[in-house]
Amino acid sequence: MAIGYRLKEERSRLGFSQTDLARVGGVGKTTQINYEKGERSPDASYLAAVAEIGVDVLYVVSGQRQPQAHGNLSAEESLLVERYRLMSTEARATINSVSEALATFRK
Question: What pTM does this model have?
């Protein structure tokens, strides 16, 4: 998977349009499109700017997700969150439905 694809994936995950992410990164929409197509590579100032709004720059550049601090979550809970983040939208919807149903069955 290429940088452009991962950048597009992050943009979609965060709910930004190409125009909006381009603006945040200080570039034009055409440049954003070229980044996502893999025709150009973003520079450090662009990556720093989009990191400020939640783009996982480590993931965009390397394909490895940046470890996220989970506050007071246990190791088991953190693992669930990490797995959830790797799921497709459809899988997340399924997990949300199942977890809602199971939450009603308390000890």
Answer: 0.62
Q: Any idea of the CA torsion for 90, 67, 54, 62, to the nearest 10 degrees? A: -90
Contacts of 96 (CB under 8 A, 6+ apart): none
Q: Do 71 and 58 lie in a common domain?
A: no
pLDDT band at 13, cuts 50/70/90? confident
Structure tokens at 7: 């950048």
Distance of CA 71 to the CA centre of its chain: 19
Please indicate, yes or no, whether residues 38 and 12 belong to a single structural domain of this protein: yes
What tokens were used for 102? 């199971």
Six-digit token pair at 33?
A: 């499109």
Paired tokens of 43: 């520079």
61 vs 73: CA distance, rounded Å: 28
